[in-house]
Amino acid sequence: MAKNNLLTEELNYIGGSKTPTHLHLCTYTPTAVESHDGDTIDDILPHFKSGAMHWIQVHGLKDTEEVRKVCQHFNIGFLTEQDILNSLHLTKIEEHDAYNVVILKLLSPSGESNEYQPQQLCVVQGENYLLTFTENDTDFFDEIYTAIKDNVLNIRSRSSDFLLSVILNSVMTNFMSIISEMEDRLEDLEERLLSPEMEDPTIGDLHAYRRNYRLIKKCVLPLKEQITKLFHSGNSRLLHKANHPFFSDVNDHLQFVLQTLEGCRDLLEALVDMILSGNDRRMNGIMKQLTVVSTIFIPLTFLSGIWGMNFRVMPELEWEYGYLYAWGLMLMTAVGVCIYIRRKKWY
User: Fold this and answer.
1) What is the pLDDT along the chain (347 residues), one digit of tens a residue?
2) CB 220 within 8 A of CB 257
3) Which domains are present in the chain?
4) Where are the beta strands (DSSP E) in 30-99?
5) Which helix (H) or strand (E) holds 100?
């Protein structure tokens, strides 16, 4: 039975990852970048620098006490701590007085054909820090870390909300890549259906795509209004107007994902209808063949039934060539029925 989370001070990780909790610190200023690893917050605190931007990546949520220590160091609320540790939490963006919280899903191939595995990403953005919590080790941030080292778009001189927009944009890019690939594969399935030379796909072929569609929709749909609300509300002092265009770009990518998702939904519905229609056509063809065979044999069954009656006086049975005549009549009847069916264009 589920417990009321408002009636307990315990923190429990809700998820299946067994990755040990460890931390990675990226500290940067306009002139320098440093990175440090540690198993606890105490291992990386000595590397904090005044006036620098601190990005702490927490990989693995198994050690809930360590997650609590990280959050308490930055005065993160208890309910946010619970949300971080709940891998089943819905996608959301939440504003607080001293920090903003963004809970997203990252999708990666699960090893099975056309399947994706979700992983929760929780981002906490403060004045001069950014915390990211993931359930497992991931290379998702490698490109962002490289951009920081190369100072792309003068990122090291910008505030934490710019780094937040970069992470959000990377998440949207991940979704764009996945949804575009899914759209291409659905179009290939459509070509297979329309090509008489290729084997038709089945409903089973669409099953994975339908699951992926529902998964992506569940991940991105809640962001439709929340991203716009976040940087248009004017309530958050942590989002500077100078960086609003970057959040607007995130919103543009989100709209692309949503529109492409709608296109995939229409394609899926059309493919299901086409496959069901194709199955109906094949079944109708089979029934037509069986009907033709039955139609041919009905008069033959009638003739054989007549000669199978047990009347004593049946002249045909005494004819010298009666058996041959019977076969001839049956063959002529069968051929006649076939010709009649062809002329009527019933088959």
Assistant:
1) 556 666 677 899 998 889 999 999 999 999 999 999 999 999 999 999 999 999 999 999 999 999 999 999 999 999 999 999 999 998 999 989 899 999 999 998 876 667 788 999 999 999 999 999 999 999 999 999 999 999 999 999 999 999 999 999 999 999 999 999 999 988 888 888 877 665 666 677 788 888 889 999 999 988 887 887 776 665 567 888 888 889 889 999 999 999 999 999 999 998 888 888 878 888 888 898 888 888 888 888 888 888 778 777 788 777 888 888 888 888 999 898 888 888 888 87
2) yes
3) 1-156 (3.30.460.20), 285-343 (1.20.58)
4) 32-38, 53-59, 92-95
5) strand 100-109
